[in-house]
Amino acid sequence: MEKKVLIKFLNGTADAAERSKVMQWLEKDGSREKFDRLLLDRWKNVGEGEDDERDYEALLNKIHARILRPSRSIRPNPWVRYLRVAASALLLMASAYFLKQSAEYTEPVPVISERIIERSTSDGEKLQLTLPDDSKVTLNANSTLSFSSHYGLKERVVRLSGEAFFEVAKDPEKPFRVETDGHMTRALGTKFNTYARSGNFAVALTEGKVAVQGAQTAIELQPGELARSSGSTTISVGPFDMDQVIGWKENTLVFDRKPLTTILEDLERWYGVEMAVDPGLNVNRRVIGTFRNKNLNDVLTGLGFSLGFAFDIDNNTVTISKNRL
Where would I find the FecR protein domain in this sequence (predicted)? Predict the structure, then answer.
Protein backbone atom coordinates (compact mmCIF):
# COMPACT_ATOMS: atom_id res chain seq x y z
CA MET A 1 0.00 0.00 0.00
CA GLU A 2 1.33 3.41 -0.93
CA LYS A 3 2.23 5.52 2.08
CA LYS A 4 0.72 8.68 0.61
CA VAL A 5 -2.65 6.96 0.23
CA LEU A 6 -2.58 5.87 3.89
CA ILE A 7 -1.69 9.42 4.95
CA LYS A 8 -4.56 10.82 2.89
CA PHE A 9 -6.82 8.22 4.53
CA LEU A 10 -5.73 9.34 8.02
CA ASN A 11 -6.10 13.04 7.10
CA GLY A 12 -9.59 12.45 5.73
CA THR A 13 -8.63 13.65 2.22
CA ALA A 14 -8.86 10.27 0.43
CA ASP A 15 -11.55 9.78 -2.19
CA ALA A 16 -13.99 6.84 -2.28
CA ALA A 17 -11.73 4.65 -4.41
CA GLU A 18 -8.73 5.24 -2.12
CA ARG A 19 -10.77 4.52 0.99
CA SER A 20 -11.97 1.21 -0.52
CA LYS A 21 -8.41 0.34 -1.46
CA VAL A 22 -7.20 0.92 2.12
CA MET A 23 -10.02 -1.17 3.60
CA GLN A 24 -9.14 -4.11 1.36
CA TRP A 25 -5.44 -3.78 2.22
CA LEU A 26 -6.14 -3.89 5.95
CA GLU A 27 -7.62 -7.41 5.55
CA LYS A 28 -4.21 -8.69 4.48
CA ASP A 29 -1.58 -10.18 6.79
CA GLY A 30 1.10 -7.74 8.00
CA SER A 31 -0.92 -4.66 7.15
CA ARG A 32 -1.60 -3.90 10.81
CA GLU A 33 2.12 -3.70 11.69
CA LYS A 34 2.81 -1.37 8.78
CA PHE A 35 -0.11 0.81 9.81
CA ASP A 36 1.24 0.96 13.38
CA ARG A 37 4.63 2.11 12.11
CA LEU A 38 3.03 4.79 9.97
CA LEU A 39 1.01 6.05 12.92
CA LEU A 40 4.21 6.17 15.02
CA ASP A 41 6.03 8.17 12.34
CA ARG A 42 3.18 10.65 12.15
CA TRP A 43 3.16 10.93 15.96
CA LYS A 44 6.86 11.71 16.07
CA ASN A 45 6.41 14.45 13.48
CA VAL A 46 3.89 16.13 15.78
CA GLY A 47 5.34 15.67 19.28
CA GLU A 48 8.80 15.52 20.81
CA GLY A 49 10.36 13.98 23.98
CA GLU A 50 9.98 10.96 26.23
CA ASP A 51 6.58 12.05 27.47
CA ASP A 52 5.33 11.98 23.90
CA GLU A 53 6.63 8.42 23.44
CA ARG A 54 4.85 7.26 26.58
CA ASP A 55 1.69 8.97 25.39
CA TYR A 56 1.98 7.21 22.06
CA GLU A 57 2.44 3.77 23.63
CA ALA A 58 -0.54 4.36 25.92
CA LEU A 59 -2.66 5.48 22.98
CA LEU A 60 -1.62 2.49 20.86
CA ASN A 61 -2.39 0.07 23.69
CA LYS A 62 -5.80 1.63 24.15
CA ILE A 63 -6.49 1.34 20.44
CA HIS A 64 -5.44 -2.33 20.38
CA ALA A 65 -7.37 -3.11 23.56
CA ARG A 66 -10.45 -1.51 22.08
CA ILE A 67 -10.08 -3.55 18.91
CA LEU A 68 -9.65 -6.85 20.83
CA ARG A 69 -12.28 -6.19 23.58
CA PRO A 70 -15.24 -8.64 23.23
CA SER A 71 -18.67 -7.19 22.85
CA ARG A 72 -22.10 -8.77 23.20
CA SER A 73 -23.59 -6.52 20.57
CA ILE A 74 -23.11 -6.69 16.86
CA ARG A 75 -20.26 -4.38 16.00
CA PRO A 76 -18.80 -3.10 12.77
CA ASN A 77 -15.54 -4.21 11.22
CA PRO A 78 -12.86 -3.65 13.97
CA TRP A 79 -10.43 -2.16 11.46
CA VAL A 80 -12.91 0.58 10.68
CA ARG A 81 -13.21 1.39 14.37
CA TYR A 82 -9.43 1.20 14.75
CA LEU A 83 -8.86 3.62 11.90
CA ARG A 84 -11.47 6.02 13.21
CA VAL A 85 -9.85 6.08 16.65
CA ALA A 86 -6.35 6.45 15.19
CA ALA A 87 -7.38 9.24 12.83
CA SER A 88 -9.16 11.09 15.65
CA ALA A 89 -6.14 10.73 17.92
CA LEU A 90 -3.80 12.02 15.22
CA LEU A 91 -6.03 14.99 14.51
CA LEU A 92 -6.24 15.78 18.24
CA MET A 93 -2.46 15.60 18.64
CA ALA A 94 -1.87 17.86 15.64
CA SER A 95 -4.43 20.39 16.89
CA ALA A 96 -2.87 20.43 20.38
CA TYR A 97 0.59 20.94 18.90
CA PHE A 98 -0.43 23.88 16.76
CA LEU A 99 -2.43 25.44 19.60
CA LYS A 100 0.64 25.17 21.80
CA GLN A 101 2.79 26.79 19.13
CA SER A 102 0.25 29.58 18.67
CA ALA A 103 0.09 30.23 22.41
CA GLU A 104 3.88 30.47 22.64
CA TYR A 105 4.16 32.81 19.64
CA THR A 106 3.56 36.48 20.22
CA GLU A 107 3.39 38.85 17.31
CA PRO A 108 6.32 41.24 17.76
CA VAL A 109 5.32 44.86 18.29
CA PRO A 110 7.25 47.10 15.89
CA VAL A 111 9.32 49.75 17.70
CA ILE A 112 9.68 53.03 15.86
CA SER A 113 12.81 54.77 17.07
CA GLU A 114 12.48 58.41 18.05
CA ARG A 115 14.29 61.03 15.97
CA ILE A 116 14.50 64.80 16.00
CA ILE A 117 12.91 66.69 13.11
CA GLU A 118 14.46 70.09 12.39
CA ARG A 119 13.27 72.90 10.12
CA SER A 120 15.45 75.95 9.50
CA THR A 121 15.37 79.16 7.52
CA SER A 122 18.29 81.11 6.16
CA ASP A 123 18.62 84.88 5.86
CA GLY A 124 15.87 86.36 3.68
CA GLU A 125 13.63 83.30 4.06
CA LYS A 126 10.39 82.60 5.95
CA LEU A 127 8.74 79.22 6.38
CA GLN A 128 5.20 78.11 7.28
CA LEU A 129 4.78 74.74 9.00
CA THR A 130 1.80 72.66 10.11
CA LEU A 131 2.59 70.33 13.00
CA PRO A 132 0.97 66.87 13.36
CA ASP A 133 -1.70 68.27 15.73
CA ASP A 134 -2.62 70.99 13.17
CA SER A 135 -0.83 73.72 15.12
CA LYS A 136 0.67 76.24 12.69
CA VAL A 137 4.09 77.87 12.85
CA THR A 138 5.49 80.78 10.85
CA LEU A 139 9.27 80.70 11.12
CA ASN A 140 11.11 83.98 10.63
CA ALA A 141 14.43 84.34 8.81
CA ASN A 142 17.56 82.70 10.24
CA SER A 143 15.57 80.59 12.72
CA THR A 144 15.39 76.91 13.64
CA LEU A 145 12.48 74.86 15.00
CA SER A 146 12.96 71.26 16.15
CA PHE A 147 10.60 68.64 17.58
CA SER A 148 10.41 64.89 18.17
CA SER A 149 9.04 62.45 15.60
CA HIS A 150 6.78 61.32 18.49
CA TYR A 151 5.33 64.83 18.79
CA GLY A 152 1.73 64.71 19.93
CA LEU A 153 1.71 61.10 21.12
CA LYS A 154 2.21 61.99 24.79
CA GLU A 155 3.21 65.64 24.72
CA ARG A 156 3.59 68.64 22.41
CA VAL A 157 7.05 70.15 22.75
CA VAL A 158 9.08 72.20 20.25
CA ARG A 159 12.43 73.93 20.58
CA LEU A 160 13.10 77.31 19.01
CA SER A 161 16.18 79.30 18.15
CA GLY A 162 15.32 82.57 16.43
CA GLU A 163 11.78 83.85 16.00
CA ALA A 164 8.43 82.26 15.22
CA PHE A 165 4.72 82.93 15.45
CA PHE A 166 2.58 80.06 16.80
CA GLU A 167 -1.11 79.30 16.27
CA VAL A 168 -1.69 76.44 18.70
CA ALA A 169 -4.46 73.86 18.24
CA LYS A 170 -6.46 73.28 21.42
CA ASP A 171 -5.76 70.13 23.43
CA PRO A 172 -6.25 70.62 27.21
CA GLU A 173 -4.70 67.23 27.99
CA LYS A 174 -1.47 68.01 26.14
CA PRO A 175 -0.24 71.58 26.74
CA PHE A 176 1.90 73.05 23.96
CA ARG A 177 5.42 73.99 25.09
CA VAL A 178 8.08 76.10 23.38
CA GLU A 179 11.56 75.65 24.82
CA THR A 180 14.33 78.20 24.28
CA ASP A 181 17.64 78.69 26.04
CA GLY A 182 16.72 79.49 29.63
CA HIS A 183 12.95 79.85 29.11
CA MET A 184 9.86 77.75 28.50
CA THR A 185 6.46 78.95 27.24
CA ARG A 186 3.40 76.82 27.96
CA ALA A 187 0.07 77.20 26.14
CA LEU A 188 -3.17 75.32 25.47
CA GLY A 189 -4.94 76.87 22.49
CA THR A 190 -3.58 80.28 21.65
CA LYS A 191 -1.60 82.56 19.34
CA PHE A 192 1.73 84.08 20.34
CA ASN A 193 5.11 85.21 19.04
CA THR A 194 8.39 84.00 20.51
CA TYR A 195 11.80 85.61 20.04
CA ALA A 196 15.07 84.04 21.25
CA ARG A 197 18.36 85.40 19.89
CA SER A 198 21.73 86.19 21.45
CA GLY A 199 20.50 85.98 25.03
CA ASN A 200 17.42 88.12 24.35
CA PHE A 201 14.00 86.55 24.88
CA ALA A 202 10.45 87.80 24.34
CA VAL A 203 6.94 86.34 24.14
CA ALA A 204 4.05 88.43 22.80
CA LEU A 205 0.53 87.04 23.26
CA THR A 206 -2.22 87.93 20.79
CA GLU A 207 -4.91 85.40 21.77
CA GLY A 208 -5.61 82.97 24.61
CA LYS A 209 -3.30 82.53 27.59
CA VAL A 210 0.31 81.40 28.08
CA ALA A 211 2.61 80.81 31.03
CA VAL A 212 6.27 81.80 30.72
CA GLN A 213 8.86 80.08 32.90
CA GLY A 214 12.34 81.50 33.46
CA ALA A 215 15.18 80.30 35.64
CA GLN A 216 13.68 81.92 38.75
CA THR A 217 10.48 83.57 37.56
CA ALA A 218 7.12 82.34 36.27
CA ILE A 219 4.43 84.65 34.92
CA GLU A 220 1.14 84.31 33.05
CA LEU A 221 0.32 86.56 30.10
CA GLN A 222 -2.98 88.00 28.91
CA PRO A 223 -3.65 88.99 25.27
CA GLY A 224 -1.81 92.18 24.36
CA GLU A 225 1.00 91.59 26.86
CA LEU A 226 4.66 90.96 26.14
CA ALA A 227 7.15 89.24 28.45
CA ARG A 228 10.76 90.21 27.95
CA SER A 229 14.13 89.10 29.36
CA SER A 230 17.57 90.27 28.34
CA GLY A 231 20.49 88.32 29.74
CA SER A 232 19.03 88.12 33.26
CA THR A 233 16.69 85.99 35.33
CA THR A 234 14.16 88.83 35.57
CA ILE A 235 11.14 88.81 33.25
CA SER A 236 9.39 92.13 32.65
CA VAL A 237 5.81 92.38 31.36
CA GLY A 238 4.17 95.20 29.43
CA PRO A 239 1.98 96.09 26.43
CA PHE A 240 3.27 95.88 22.87
CA ASP A 241 2.55 97.25 19.41
CA MET A 242 1.20 94.49 17.16
CA ASP A 243 2.83 95.74 13.95
CA GLN A 244 6.15 96.34 15.62
CA VAL A 245 6.44 92.88 17.17
CA ILE A 246 4.55 90.64 14.73
CA GLY A 247 4.61 92.78 11.60
CA TRP A 248 7.39 90.64 10.09
CA LYS A 249 4.81 87.89 9.58
CA GLU A 250 2.90 90.12 7.13
CA ASN A 251 6.03 91.68 5.57
CA THR A 252 5.69 94.82 7.65
CA LEU A 253 8.78 96.39 9.23
CA VAL A 254 8.18 98.78 12.12
CA PHE A 255 11.05 100.69 13.76
CA ASP A 256 10.24 102.58 16.94
CA ARG A 257 13.36 104.46 18.07
CA LYS A 258 15.47 101.50 17.08
CA PRO A 259 19.26 102.01 16.59
CA LEU A 260 20.45 101.89 12.98
CA THR A 261 22.99 99.18 13.83
CA THR A 262 20.16 96.87 15.00
CA ILE A 263 18.05 97.74 11.95
CA LEU A 264 20.88 96.81 9.60
CA GLU A 265 21.25 93.45 11.37
CA ASP A 266 17.51 92.84 10.94
CA LEU A 267 17.70 93.73 7.26
CA GLU A 268 20.52 91.22 6.77
CA ARG A 269 18.26 88.46 8.07
CA TRP A 270 15.07 89.59 6.36
CA TYR A 271 16.57 90.09 2.90
CA GLY A 272 19.46 87.63 3.00
CA VAL A 273 22.25 90.14 2.38
CA GLU A 274 25.53 91.16 4.00
CA MET A 275 26.06 94.74 5.09
CA ALA A 276 29.43 96.51 4.76
CA VAL A 277 29.16 99.76 6.77
CA ASP A 278 31.46 102.78 6.55
CA PRO A 279 33.23 103.11 9.94
CA GLY A 280 32.59 106.85 9.85
CA LEU A 281 28.81 106.43 9.81
CA ASN A 282 27.01 106.98 13.12
CA VAL A 283 25.07 103.70 13.50
CA ASN A 284 23.75 104.55 16.98
CA ARG A 285 21.19 107.03 15.70
CA ARG A 286 17.64 105.88 16.41
CA VAL A 287 14.99 105.47 13.74
CA ILE A 288 11.20 105.76 13.63
CA GLY A 289 9.52 104.36 10.53
CA THR A 290 7.17 101.76 8.99
CA PHE A 291 7.70 99.88 5.72
CA ARG A 292 4.94 97.63 4.34
CA ASN A 293 5.72 95.14 1.59
CA LYS A 294 8.79 97.08 0.51
CA ASN A 295 11.85 95.65 -1.22
CA LEU A 296 15.33 96.25 0.15
CA ASN A 297 16.07 99.11 -2.21
CA ASP A 298 12.95 101.01 -1.07
CA VAL A 299 13.74 100.47 2.63
CA LEU A 300 17.36 101.65 2.26
CA THR A 301 16.27 104.65 0.20
CA GLY A 302 13.93 105.76 2.99
CA LEU A 303 16.51 105.20 5.72
CA GLY A 304 19.31 106.85 3.72
CA PHE A 305 17.20 109.96 3.13
CA SER A 306 16.46 110.28 6.89
CA LEU A 307 19.94 109.45 8.19
CA GLY A 308 22.10 110.87 5.42
CA PHE A 309 23.85 107.80 3.99
CA ALA A 310 24.30 106.35 0.52
CA PHE A 311 24.20 102.67 -0.40
CA ASP A 312 25.15 100.33 -3.21
CA ILE A 313 23.66 96.86 -3.77
CA ASP A 314 25.91 94.34 -5.55
CA ASN A 315 24.26 90.91 -5.60
CA ASN A 316 24.05 89.94 -1.91
CA THR A 317 26.42 92.62 -0.61
CA VAL A 318 25.22 96.07 0.44
CA THR A 319 27.75 98.85 1.01
CA ILE A 320 26.61 101.64 3.33
CA SER A 321 28.65 104.89 3.24
CA LYS A 322 28.34 108.44 4.55
CA ASN A 323 26.71 110.89 2.22
CA ARG A 324 29.46 113.10 0.77
CA LEU A 325 27.16 116.03 -0.01
Answer: 120-210
